[in-house]
Amino acid sequence: MLDQFIYKPIHSLPESGEIASKSPSNIALVKYWGKKPIQIPTNPSISFTLTNCFTKTNISFKKSENFSFNFTVKGVEKPSFVPKIESFLERIKEWCPYIFSYQIDIDTENTFPHSSGIASSASGFSALALAVLELEQKITGISNENKYLKASFLSRLGSGSASRSLYGPAAIWGQHKNIPSTSDQYAIAYHDLHENFKNYQDTILLIDKGTKKVSSTVGHELMHNHPFSKQRFSQASSNLESMINVLKSGDLHKFISITESEALTLHAMMMTSSPYFILMKQGTLAAIEKIWSFRSESKVPLSFTLDAGANVHLLYPLAYKQQVLDFIDNELIVFCQNQHYISDEVGSGANIISASYA
Ligand code: 2P0
Q1: Which residue, 152, 235, 349, 351, could crosslink 186 as a Cys pair with Cβ 3.0–4.6 Å?
Q2: Distance, CA 32 to ligand 1 centroid (Å)?
Q3: Which CATH class is domain 197-345?
Q4: How many CB atoms are located within 10 Å of the residue 163 CB?
Q5: Pairing of strands 40-41, 68-73
């Protein structure tokens, strides 16, 4: 099944070059929570790809007898990120041996504030993987379709949710017996969106900007021997199927109920694991209650979802944007640290900004 990702050079390696890529973050509607080695999900997931929260990555490379890499964020060295990138490069070595013929400088930049509580691993690894695949395309002439598929496969080896960031407007990762072409190895694009979901909005309330209390690695591990894991994995599979029907039909009522149930279930899993965690803050709960009252009074189809943290993602159709922004300013902003929230919307995935070779 992975034969399609085997490296088959037909041209010689460029002496040097520079590639810039960008890739957005994504927000899961049906959540990935639990994995097996190496980065194989224990249930399938689907996410909306975002637009404004993205990582821009620049790689410049020069042929060298000895492989080395240097990692910077906006030109400043970040030693704390190096081990993760090192292990990523080690994992992709058998699939992309050519990178070890170079000395590589990787510089990266996020549009969302670092330590805003928004994970940069999804956008970061997918931007890096796509830049690497751009070089591979130069050497092998693979198709654009395979370039994105392999970039998704490599991204997964860096961070599971990163596999979904390559494509918009939505992406499915993880094998599902009733959904053709799905795979545990990589994500596939999902395009069949009803008009209601075109340009769907995601406004992110930054309730707690601190670093995550539970790393995703630890979080996924909590699903091993979890008393409810079996039920959870089968629930996620069935929610994915229902969600796809909803995305096609435009049933906003059902969208709200699946999305919110998924968010609360993710947190319920963490509250019932051993050890247990509560990642919501008081502001998270207060915001959820306000959202429910607002929805019931205004009939605006506003829903929320959560990542593995305290921040609240508000999801709603573009047509209600002003009404929701007024609601945020009047009632929700008090729960945001430094009154900070991020306005985002569904987007089209990762792309190459520039590439030059010598
Ligand atoms: C998701 N999350 O589906 C779920 C929902 C957070 C909550 O995937 O260990 O950073 O790098 O594979 O992808 C966050 O976990 O985990 C995540 P790794 P990742 O988006």
Answers
A1: 152
A2: 6
A3: alpha beta
A4: 36
A5: unpaired
Ligand 1 centroid to 97 CA: how many Å? 27
Q: Do domains 3-192+348-357 and 197-345 have the same CATH topology?
A: no
Q: Tell me the CATH architecture of domain 3-192+348-357.
A: 2-Layer Sandwich (3.30)
Long-range contacts of 3-6 (CB under 8 A, 24+ apart): 4/146, 4/149, 4/150, 5/95, 5/149, 5/150, 5/153, 6/95
Confirm or reject: Cβ of 266 under 6 Å from ligand 1: yes
Ligand 1 atom nearest the C-alpha of 160 is 12
**What is the domain partition of the chain in residue ranges?**
3-192+348-357, 197-345
Cβ of 190 below 6 Å from ligand 1:
no
Nearest CA to ligand 1 atom 4: 32
Does the pTM exceed 0.90? yes
pLDDT digits (tens, 9 = 90+) for 98-117: 999 999 999 999 998 766 66
Q: Is residue 175's pLDDT more than 90?
A: yes
The tens digit of pLDDT for each residue in 221-248 reads 999 999 999 999 999 999 999 999 999 9
